[in-house]
Amino acid sequence: MRKITLEDVKNLHEYELIRDDWRKAVLAEKARRRVLLGPLMSFVFENRTTVLSQVQEMCRAERIARPEAVQQEVDVYNELLPGPGEVAGTLMVEITQESRVQPELDRLVGLGRGDRLWLQLGERKVFARFDEGQGREDRISAVQYLRFPVGDDPALREALARGEVDAKLVVDHPSYRAEAQVPPVTQEELAKDLTPS
């Protein structure tokens, strides 16, 4: 997937003019890419549109206008994009009751260990690679950035594009177990992500 460049980012004034329509389009895109993973987790497979949206919103919120500062944001957020043969995304632990946030997160310590979360593609398990800079051995963040090294398999891409893969996301942690089918519309999006640009 092609990385975001400074030229892709609209300046603050230009962005304000299109923001309402842009956000509606991004929300529709995210809806096609979101998978609910049990009652506490959701996962969004990221692409250029979803990540560019985050850059635009961060620049807007922080009033970042200098090109070198915008470039720093672009560089940070480009890390969320999948590399060749990968799909990538954001896992969110969604706890709305403030008093439950830390106890629930404490129960999920160890989620980032190699075999706790995977993308099941037919018989094949593709284990998530968590962003190493995010976690510690004794703590977990409510937002995690993951990659699934799927590989470059044209037959798999074509099957995903047709929504024909028995695909699911699975989490198997001692304190939280869930699995969710990856719907055909999301499979189509993943096929696009895996298509070399």
Write out the strand line-up for the largest beta sheet, numbering strands in chain order: 1-2-3-7-6
Biggest pleated sheet = 5 strands, antiparallel
Helical residue percent band: 25-40%
Question: What structural category characterises the helix and strand content?
Answer: alpha+beta
Q: What is the number of strand segments?
A: 9
Shape: globular
Strand content: 15-25%
What is the count of helical runs? 6
Mean pLDDT: 92
Q: Which stretches are poorly predicted, pLDDT < 50 over at least 5 residues?
A: none
Count the domains.
1
Q: What can you tell me about this protein's structure?
A:
The protein is of the alpha+beta class and 197 residues long. It has one domain (6-193). 40% of the residues lie in helices and 24% in strands. The protein has 6 helices and 9 strands. It has a 5-stranded antiparallel beta sheet with strand order 1-2-3-7-6. A 4-stranded antiparallel beta sheet has the order 5-4-8-9, with no helix packed on it. Helix 1 (12-33) packs across helix 2 (48-62), helix 2 packs across helix 3 and helix 5 (154-161) packs antiparallel against helix 6.
